[in-house]
Amino acid sequence: MNLNSHRSPCCDSDEQRSTVNNTSNEYNQIDHDLMAKVLSNHNISAAWQHVKRNKGAAGIDNMSIEEFNDFAKLHWLGIKQQLLNGSYQPLPVKRVMIPKPDGGERMLGIPAVIDRVIQQAIAQVISPYFEPQFSPHSYGYRPHKRASQAVNHVQSCVKQGYKTAVDIDLSKFFDEVDHDMLMNRVSRKIKDKALMRLLGKYLRAGIAERETGLWFESTKGVPQGGPLSPLLSNILLDELDKKLTYKHLKFARYADDIIILVKTKSEGLIIQREITAFITKRLKLKVNESKSRVGPVSGSKFLGFTFRYGQVQIHEQALKKFKANVRELTNRNWGISMTLQIHKLTQYLRGWGHYYLIANAYQLTVDLDHWIRRRIRMCYWRQWRKPRTKVRSLMKLGVSERLAIACGITSKGPCRSSKTKGINIALGNNYLASQGLVSLRDIWINIHYGR
Q: pTM of the entire structure?
Protein backbone atom coordinates (compact mmCIF):
# COMPACT_ATOMS: atom_id res chain seq x y z
CA MET A 1 0.00 0.00 0.00
CA ASN A 2 0.96 3.66 -0.28
CA LEU A 3 1.63 4.58 3.33
CA ASN A 4 0.92 8.25 2.79
CA SER A 5 -2.31 8.08 0.84
CA HIS A 6 -3.69 4.71 2.02
CA ARG A 7 -4.15 3.73 -1.61
CA SER A 8 -2.66 0.72 -3.38
CA PRO A 9 0.92 1.40 -4.46
CA CYS A 10 1.60 2.53 -7.97
CA CYS A 11 5.37 2.42 -8.15
CA ASP A 12 6.83 3.17 -11.53
CA SER A 13 9.98 1.03 -11.81
CA ASP A 14 11.82 3.55 -14.01
CA GLU A 15 10.96 6.35 -11.60
CA GLN A 16 12.14 4.30 -8.62
CA ARG A 17 15.41 3.46 -10.34
CA SER A 18 15.97 7.13 -11.01
CA THR A 19 15.63 7.81 -7.29
CA VAL A 20 18.39 5.33 -6.49
CA ASN A 21 20.69 5.70 -9.46
CA ASN A 22 20.51 9.38 -10.41
CA THR A 23 24.07 10.67 -10.45
CA SER A 24 23.42 14.17 -11.69
CA ASN A 25 24.95 17.29 -10.19
CA GLU A 26 22.06 17.73 -7.73
CA TYR A 27 23.71 15.13 -5.49
CA ASN A 28 26.85 17.20 -5.28
CA GLN A 29 24.87 20.09 -3.79
CA ILE A 30 24.19 20.47 -0.06
CA ASP A 31 20.55 19.71 0.75
CA HIS A 32 19.36 20.68 4.21
CA ASP A 33 15.84 19.25 3.85
CA LEU A 34 16.26 15.62 2.92
CA MET A 35 13.68 14.43 5.45
CA ALA A 36 10.91 15.76 3.21
CA LYS A 37 12.27 13.61 0.36
CA VAL A 38 12.50 10.58 2.64
CA LEU A 39 8.85 10.94 3.66
CA SER A 40 7.47 11.83 0.23
CA ASN A 41 4.57 9.70 -0.98
CA HIS A 42 6.55 8.27 -3.87
CA ASN A 43 9.63 7.41 -1.82
CA ILE A 44 7.72 5.76 1.03
CA SER A 45 5.61 3.78 -1.43
CA ALA A 46 8.74 2.57 -3.26
CA ALA A 47 10.34 1.63 0.08
CA TRP A 48 7.28 -0.38 1.13
CA GLN A 49 7.23 -2.24 -2.20
CA HIS A 50 10.92 -3.11 -1.74
CA VAL A 51 10.41 -4.40 1.80
CA LYS A 52 7.33 -6.37 0.77
CA ARG A 53 9.19 -8.05 -2.10
CA ASN A 54 12.04 -9.04 0.20
CA LYS A 55 9.60 -10.48 2.75
CA GLY A 56 11.71 -11.46 5.75
CA ALA A 57 10.99 -12.40 9.35
CA ALA A 58 9.07 -10.36 11.88
CA GLY A 59 10.97 -8.00 14.16
CA ILE A 60 10.80 -7.67 17.93
CA ASP A 61 7.12 -6.61 17.76
CA ASN A 62 6.31 -9.94 16.04
CA MET A 63 4.46 -8.14 13.22
CA SER A 64 4.61 -9.92 9.87
CA ILE A 65 4.71 -8.37 6.41
CA GLU A 66 1.11 -9.53 5.87
CA GLU A 67 -0.10 -7.79 9.04
CA PHE A 68 1.68 -4.52 8.30
CA ASN A 69 -0.91 -3.18 5.84
CA ASP A 70 -3.64 -2.94 8.48
CA PHE A 71 -1.18 -1.45 11.00
CA ALA A 72 -0.05 1.22 8.52
CA LYS A 73 -3.61 2.27 7.68
CA LEU A 74 -4.20 3.10 11.34
CA HIS A 75 -0.82 4.42 12.44
CA TRP A 76 1.30 5.70 9.54
CA LEU A 77 0.15 9.33 9.63
CA GLY A 78 0.97 9.51 13.34
CA ILE A 79 4.37 7.90 12.79
CA LYS A 80 5.08 10.30 9.95
CA GLN A 81 4.33 13.24 12.23
CA GLN A 82 6.69 11.83 14.87
CA LEU A 83 9.41 11.52 12.23
CA LEU A 84 8.87 15.15 11.23
CA ASN A 85 8.96 16.51 14.78
CA GLY A 86 11.87 14.28 15.85
CA SER A 87 10.03 12.29 18.52
CA TYR A 88 10.00 8.95 16.71
CA GLN A 89 11.94 6.20 18.48
CA PRO A 90 12.86 3.07 16.46
CA LEU A 91 12.24 -0.32 18.04
CA PRO A 92 15.29 -2.38 19.00
CA VAL A 93 16.28 -5.02 16.46
CA LYS A 94 15.55 -8.67 17.18
CA ARG A 95 18.65 -10.78 17.77
CA VAL A 96 18.86 -13.85 15.53
CA MET A 97 21.91 -16.11 15.57
CA ILE A 98 22.80 -18.02 12.39
CA PRO A 99 25.61 -20.56 11.92
CA LYS A 100 28.76 -19.51 10.04
CA PRO A 101 30.26 -21.83 7.39
CA ASP A 102 33.56 -22.07 9.28
CA GLY A 103 31.93 -22.69 12.67
CA GLY A 104 30.59 -20.37 15.32
CA GLU A 105 27.62 -18.06 14.91
CA ARG A 106 26.88 -14.71 13.36
CA MET A 107 24.31 -12.28 14.70
CA LEU A 108 21.60 -10.76 12.56
CA GLY A 109 19.55 -7.84 13.84
CA ILE A 110 16.05 -7.96 12.36
CA PRO A 111 14.26 -4.58 12.50
CA ALA A 112 10.50 -4.32 12.83
CA VAL A 113 8.70 -4.00 9.48
CA ILE A 114 7.93 -0.31 10.06
CA ASP A 115 11.61 0.38 10.70
CA ARG A 116 12.60 -1.61 7.61
CA VAL A 117 10.33 0.63 5.54
CA ILE A 118 11.76 3.82 7.07
CA GLN A 119 15.35 2.59 6.71
CA GLN A 120 14.74 1.65 3.08
CA ALA A 121 13.22 5.09 2.44
CA ILE A 122 16.32 6.73 3.94
CA ALA A 123 18.67 4.51 1.91
CA GLN A 124 16.87 5.39 -1.34
CA VAL A 125 17.34 9.10 -0.71
CA ILE A 126 20.92 9.21 0.58
CA SER A 127 22.46 6.49 -1.58
CA PRO A 128 22.77 8.72 -4.69
CA TYR A 129 24.91 11.16 -2.68
CA PHE A 130 27.53 8.44 -2.08
CA GLU A 131 27.15 5.89 -4.85
CA PRO A 132 28.87 7.83 -7.69
CA GLN A 133 32.04 8.19 -5.62
CA PHE A 134 32.34 4.56 -4.53
CA SER A 135 35.17 2.51 -6.00
CA PRO A 136 34.44 0.43 -9.12
CA HIS A 137 36.12 -2.43 -7.24
CA SER A 138 33.55 -2.34 -4.41
CA TYR A 139 30.94 -4.92 -5.44
CA GLY A 140 28.74 -5.57 -2.41
CA TYR A 141 25.14 -4.33 -2.20
CA ARG A 142 25.42 -1.84 -5.04
CA PRO A 143 23.28 -1.24 -8.13
CA HIS A 144 24.44 -3.26 -11.14
CA LYS A 145 27.22 -4.93 -9.10
CA ARG A 146 27.43 -8.66 -8.40
CA ALA A 147 29.72 -11.11 -6.63
CA SER A 148 30.53 -12.73 -9.98
CA GLN A 149 32.01 -9.42 -11.18
CA ALA A 150 34.28 -9.31 -8.13
CA VAL A 151 35.44 -12.89 -8.75
CA ASN A 152 36.06 -12.19 -12.44
CA HIS A 153 38.05 -9.05 -11.56
CA VAL A 154 40.28 -11.06 -9.23
CA GLN A 155 40.77 -13.70 -11.91
CA SER A 156 41.73 -10.98 -14.39
CA CYS A 157 44.36 -9.67 -11.96
CA VAL A 158 45.74 -13.17 -11.45
CA LYS A 159 46.12 -13.57 -15.21
CA GLN A 160 48.10 -10.31 -15.25
CA GLY A 161 50.64 -11.85 -12.89
CA TYR A 162 49.30 -10.71 -9.52
CA LYS A 163 49.40 -14.14 -7.95
CA THR A 164 50.10 -13.26 -4.33
CA ALA A 165 47.05 -12.50 -2.19
CA VAL A 166 46.86 -10.28 0.87
CA ASP A 167 43.77 -11.48 2.74
CA ILE A 168 42.58 -8.98 5.36
CA ASP A 169 40.01 -10.46 7.73
CA LEU A 170 37.94 -7.79 9.48
CA SER A 171 37.01 -9.18 12.88
CA LYS A 172 33.22 -8.99 13.44
CA PHE A 173 33.07 -5.92 11.21
CA PHE A 174 29.36 -5.16 11.58
CA ASP A 175 29.62 -5.47 15.37
CA GLU A 176 32.68 -3.23 15.64
CA VAL A 177 31.74 -0.14 13.60
CA ASP A 178 32.47 3.02 15.58
CA HIS A 179 29.31 5.16 15.60
CA ASP A 180 31.10 8.51 15.77
CA MET A 181 33.42 7.53 12.94
CA LEU A 182 30.51 6.41 10.77
CA MET A 183 28.35 9.48 11.50
CA ASN A 184 31.31 11.70 10.65
CA ARG A 185 31.64 10.03 7.25
CA VAL A 186 27.91 10.31 6.56
CA SER A 187 27.79 13.97 7.61
CA ARG A 188 30.30 14.91 4.93
CA LYS A 189 27.47 14.54 2.42
CA ILE A 190 24.28 14.66 4.47
CA LYS A 191 23.60 18.03 6.12
CA ASP A 192 19.96 17.53 7.15
CA LYS A 193 20.18 17.59 10.96
CA ALA A 194 16.82 15.89 11.46
CA LEU A 195 17.84 13.01 9.21
CA MET A 196 21.22 12.70 10.92
CA ARG A 197 19.51 12.51 14.32
CA LEU A 198 17.23 9.76 13.00
CA LEU A 199 20.23 7.83 11.66
CA GLY A 200 21.85 8.13 15.08
CA LYS A 201 18.71 6.73 16.70
CA TYR A 202 18.81 3.71 14.41
CA LEU A 203 22.43 3.07 15.30
CA ARG A 204 21.62 3.28 19.02
CA ALA A 205 18.24 1.46 18.91
CA GLY A 206 19.64 -1.54 20.74
CA ILE A 207 19.24 -5.29 20.39
CA ALA A 208 16.51 -7.33 22.07
CA GLU A 209 15.74 -10.99 22.63
CA ARG A 210 12.03 -11.68 22.41
CA GLU A 211 12.26 -14.95 24.32
CA THR A 212 14.04 -13.54 27.37
CA GLY A 213 12.90 -9.92 27.21
CA LEU A 214 16.51 -8.78 27.53
CA TRP A 215 17.62 -5.54 25.84
CA PHE A 216 21.22 -4.71 25.00
CA GLU A 217 22.48 -1.18 24.42
CA SER A 218 24.13 -0.39 21.08
CA THR A 219 27.29 1.60 21.70
CA LYS A 220 28.93 0.43 18.50
CA GLY A 221 28.16 -1.69 15.45
CA VAL A 222 25.64 -1.74 12.62
CA PRO A 223 23.47 -4.87 12.99
CA GLN A 224 23.20 -6.91 9.82
CA GLY A 225 19.64 -7.39 8.69
CA GLY A 226 18.41 -3.84 8.07
CA PRO A 227 18.21 -2.00 4.71
CA LEU A 228 20.65 0.70 5.90
CA SER A 229 23.44 -1.64 7.02
CA PRO A 230 24.94 -2.40 3.57
CA LEU A 231 25.01 1.27 2.55
CA LEU A 232 26.51 2.42 5.85
CA SER A 233 29.19 -0.28 5.68
CA ASN A 234 30.13 0.83 2.17
CA ILE A 235 30.28 4.47 3.29
CA LEU A 236 32.74 3.61 6.05
CA LEU A 237 34.88 1.20 4.03
CA ASP A 238 35.00 3.54 1.03
CA GLU A 239 37.89 5.25 2.79
CA LEU A 240 39.78 1.95 2.69
CA ASP A 241 38.98 1.60 -1.02
CA LYS A 242 40.37 5.08 -1.65
CA LYS A 243 43.54 4.23 0.27
CA LEU A 244 44.08 1.11 -1.84
CA THR A 245 43.33 3.02 -5.04
CA TYR A 246 45.75 5.80 -4.09
CA LYS A 247 48.49 3.19 -3.70
CA HIS A 248 47.63 1.76 -7.15
CA LEU A 249 46.86 -1.65 -5.68
CA LYS A 250 44.80 -4.36 -7.33
CA PHE A 251 41.91 -5.30 -5.05
CA ALA A 252 38.29 -6.35 -4.81
CA ARG A 253 35.91 -5.79 -1.92
CA TYR A 254 32.47 -7.24 -1.33
CA ALA A 255 31.13 -5.68 1.89
CA ASP A 256 33.71 -6.69 4.51
CA ASP A 257 35.31 -9.43 2.37
CA ILE A 258 38.55 -7.96 0.98
CA ILE A 259 41.36 -9.35 -1.15
CA ILE A 260 44.43 -7.41 -2.33
CA LEU A 261 46.64 -8.79 -5.09
CA VAL A 262 50.36 -8.16 -5.52
CA LYS A 263 53.21 -9.82 -7.41
CA THR A 264 55.57 -10.86 -4.60
CA LYS A 265 55.24 -12.04 -1.01
CA SER A 266 57.68 -9.38 0.26
CA GLU A 267 55.51 -6.66 -1.25
CA GLY A 268 52.44 -8.34 0.22
CA LEU A 269 53.88 -8.35 3.75
CA ILE A 270 54.61 -4.61 3.53
CA ILE A 271 51.08 -3.92 2.26
CA GLN A 272 49.57 -6.11 4.96
CA ARG A 273 51.27 -4.17 7.76
CA GLU A 274 50.39 -0.79 6.28
CA ILE A 275 46.73 -1.59 5.56
CA THR A 276 46.22 -3.31 8.90
CA ALA A 277 47.51 -0.18 10.66
CA PHE A 278 45.21 1.99 8.54
CA ILE A 279 42.17 -0.12 9.39
CA THR A 280 42.85 -0.25 13.12
CA LYS A 281 44.00 3.34 13.65
CA ARG A 282 42.11 5.33 11.02
CA LEU A 283 38.86 3.35 10.80
CA LYS A 284 38.94 2.03 14.39
CA LEU A 285 38.13 -1.50 13.29
CA LYS A 286 39.65 -4.80 14.35
CA VAL A 287 41.68 -7.11 12.10
CA ASN A 288 41.72 -10.82 12.85
CA GLU A 289 45.42 -11.44 12.34
CA SER A 290 45.10 -15.20 12.81
CA LYS A 291 42.82 -15.37 9.74
CA SER A 292 44.65 -12.74 7.70
CA ARG A 293 47.43 -14.04 5.45
CA VAL A 294 49.88 -13.29 2.66
CA GLY A 295 50.52 -16.10 0.23
CA PRO A 296 49.68 -17.69 -3.12
CA VAL A 297 46.22 -16.75 -4.35
CA SER A 298 45.51 -20.49 -4.71
CA GLY A 299 45.31 -20.62 -0.92
CA SER A 300 42.80 -17.78 -0.65
CA LYS A 301 39.06 -17.96 -0.18
CA PHE A 302 37.11 -15.05 -1.66
CA LEU A 303 33.30 -15.10 -1.76
CA GLY A 304 33.35 -18.91 -1.69
CA PHE A 305 35.85 -19.24 -4.55
CA THR A 306 39.55 -19.85 -4.95
CA PHE A 307 41.91 -19.41 -7.92
CA ARG A 308 44.05 -22.36 -9.01
CA TYR A 309 45.84 -23.36 -12.20
CA GLY A 310 44.61 -20.20 -13.89
CA GLN A 311 40.98 -21.07 -13.18
CA VAL A 312 38.18 -19.96 -10.87
CA GLN A 313 37.25 -22.89 -8.65
CA ILE A 314 34.67 -23.42 -5.94
CA HIS A 315 36.34 -23.43 -2.53
CA GLU A 316 36.30 -26.76 -0.70
CA GLN A 317 34.46 -25.21 2.27
CA ALA A 318 31.67 -24.03 -0.02
CA LEU A 319 31.41 -27.53 -1.51
CA LYS A 320 31.30 -29.10 1.93
CA LYS A 321 28.46 -26.80 2.95
CA PHE A 322 26.63 -27.52 -0.32
CA LYS A 323 26.75 -31.28 0.24
CA ALA A 324 25.56 -30.88 3.83
CA ASN A 325 22.58 -28.85 2.63
CA VAL A 326 21.74 -31.37 -0.10
CA ARG A 327 21.91 -34.20 2.45
CA GLU A 328 19.47 -32.30 4.64
CA LEU A 329 17.11 -31.66 1.72
CA THR A 330 17.26 -35.35 0.68
CA ASN A 331 16.83 -36.73 4.17
CA ARG A 332 15.04 -40.04 3.70
CA ASN A 333 13.07 -39.53 6.92
CA TRP A 334 11.78 -36.05 6.07
CA GLY A 335 8.18 -37.24 5.83
CA ILE A 336 7.00 -35.06 2.92
CA SER A 337 5.94 -36.04 -0.60
CA MET A 338 8.62 -36.60 -3.20
CA THR A 339 7.06 -33.87 -5.35
CA LEU A 340 7.57 -31.30 -2.59
CA GLN A 341 11.00 -32.66 -1.70
CA ILE A 342 12.21 -32.35 -5.30
CA HIS A 343 10.70 -28.86 -5.55
CA LYS A 344 12.57 -27.64 -2.47
CA LEU A 345 15.80 -29.29 -3.60
CA THR A 346 15.50 -27.74 -7.07
CA GLN A 347 14.96 -24.28 -5.60
CA TYR A 348 18.20 -24.66 -3.65
CA LEU A 349 20.14 -26.10 -6.60
CA ARG A 350 19.09 -23.23 -8.89
CA GLY A 351 20.13 -20.56 -6.38
CA TRP A 352 23.43 -22.27 -5.58
CA GLY A 353 24.16 -23.03 -9.22
CA HIS A 354 23.56 -19.52 -10.52
CA TYR A 355 25.96 -18.16 -7.89
CA TYR A 356 28.77 -20.74 -7.88
CA LEU A 357 28.78 -22.17 -11.39
CA ILE A 358 30.64 -19.23 -12.87
CA ALA A 359 33.58 -21.42 -11.79
CA ASN A 360 35.45 -23.78 -14.12
CA ALA A 361 33.57 -26.77 -12.81
CA TYR A 362 32.05 -28.78 -15.66
CA GLN A 363 33.23 -32.20 -14.48
CA LEU A 364 32.31 -31.31 -10.92
CA THR A 365 28.71 -30.61 -11.98
CA VAL A 366 28.54 -33.98 -13.76
CA ASP A 367 29.74 -35.74 -10.59
CA LEU A 368 27.40 -33.74 -8.34
CA ASP A 369 24.40 -34.47 -10.59
CA HIS A 370 25.17 -38.19 -10.34
CA TRP A 371 25.42 -37.99 -6.55
CA ILE A 372 22.21 -35.93 -6.19
CA ARG A 373 20.20 -38.30 -8.39
CA ARG A 374 21.40 -41.25 -6.32
CA ARG A 375 20.23 -39.53 -3.14
CA ILE A 376 16.84 -38.84 -4.70
CA ARG A 377 16.53 -42.53 -5.67
CA MET A 378 17.31 -43.44 -2.06
CA CYS A 379 14.44 -41.18 -0.95
CA TYR A 380 11.99 -42.88 -3.31
CA TRP A 381 13.14 -46.32 -2.16
CA ARG A 382 12.66 -45.39 1.47
CA GLN A 383 9.19 -43.92 0.85
CA TRP A 384 8.00 -47.02 -0.98
CA ARG A 385 8.86 -48.96 2.22
CA LYS A 386 7.14 -52.38 1.75
CA PRO A 387 8.40 -54.92 -0.82
CA ARG A 388 4.96 -55.11 -2.45
CA THR A 389 4.84 -51.34 -2.91
CA LYS A 390 8.38 -51.35 -4.30
CA VAL A 391 7.55 -54.05 -6.86
CA ARG A 392 4.31 -52.32 -7.92
CA SER A 393 6.02 -48.92 -8.21
CA LEU A 394 8.93 -50.28 -10.26
CA MET A 395 6.59 -52.07 -12.66
CA LYS A 396 4.46 -48.95 -13.03
CA LEU A 397 7.61 -47.09 -14.10
CA GLY A 398 8.48 -49.60 -16.82
CA VAL A 399 10.57 -52.25 -15.05
CA SER A 400 9.90 -55.88 -16.01
CA GLU A 401 8.07 -58.00 -13.45
CA ARG A 402 11.05 -60.32 -12.94
CA LEU A 403 13.51 -57.47 -12.35
CA ALA A 404 11.02 -55.56 -10.18
CA ILE A 405 10.53 -58.57 -7.91
CA ALA A 406 14.30 -59.12 -7.65
CA CYS A 407 14.76 -55.47 -6.62
CA GLY A 408 11.72 -55.34 -4.36
CA ILE A 409 12.61 -58.31 -2.17
CA THR A 410 16.30 -57.47 -1.81
CA SER A 411 17.76 -57.04 1.65
CA LYS A 412 20.02 -54.24 0.42
CA GLY A 413 19.63 -50.88 2.09
CA PRO A 414 18.57 -47.67 0.27
CA CYS A 415 22.14 -46.67 -0.58
CA ARG A 416 23.07 -49.94 -2.30
CA SER A 417 19.61 -50.35 -3.83
CA SER A 418 19.85 -46.91 -5.45
CA LYS A 419 22.65 -48.26 -7.64
CA THR A 420 20.78 -51.32 -8.93
CA LYS A 421 19.62 -51.72 -12.51
CA GLY A 422 15.90 -51.84 -11.72
CA ILE A 423 15.84 -48.57 -9.81
CA ASN A 424 17.98 -46.81 -12.39
CA ILE A 425 15.57 -47.92 -15.14
CA ALA A 426 12.51 -46.77 -13.18
CA LEU A 427 14.03 -43.58 -11.83
CA GLY A 428 16.24 -42.69 -14.77
CA ASN A 429 17.62 -39.25 -15.45
CA ASN A 430 14.77 -38.34 -17.80
CA TYR A 431 12.12 -39.39 -15.30
CA LEU A 432 13.69 -37.35 -12.49
CA ALA A 433 13.94 -34.35 -14.83
CA SER A 434 10.23 -34.77 -15.65
CA GLN A 435 9.53 -34.54 -11.92
CA GLY A 436 11.29 -31.17 -11.83
CA LEU A 437 14.82 -32.09 -10.74
CA VAL A 438 17.23 -29.55 -12.21
CA SER A 439 20.68 -30.47 -13.55
CA LEU A 440 23.72 -28.53 -12.33
CA ARG A 441 25.45 -29.49 -15.57
CA ASP A 442 22.70 -27.78 -17.57
CA ILE A 443 22.96 -24.65 -15.41
CA TRP A 444 26.75 -24.59 -15.94
CA ILE A 445 26.37 -24.92 -19.72
CA ASN A 446 23.75 -22.16 -19.79
CA ILE A 447 26.00 -19.81 -17.79
CA HIS A 448 29.07 -20.44 -19.92
CA TYR A 449 27.56 -21.01 -23.35
CA GLY A 450 24.08 -19.51 -23.13
CA ARG A 451 22.03 -22.52 -23.97
A: 0.84
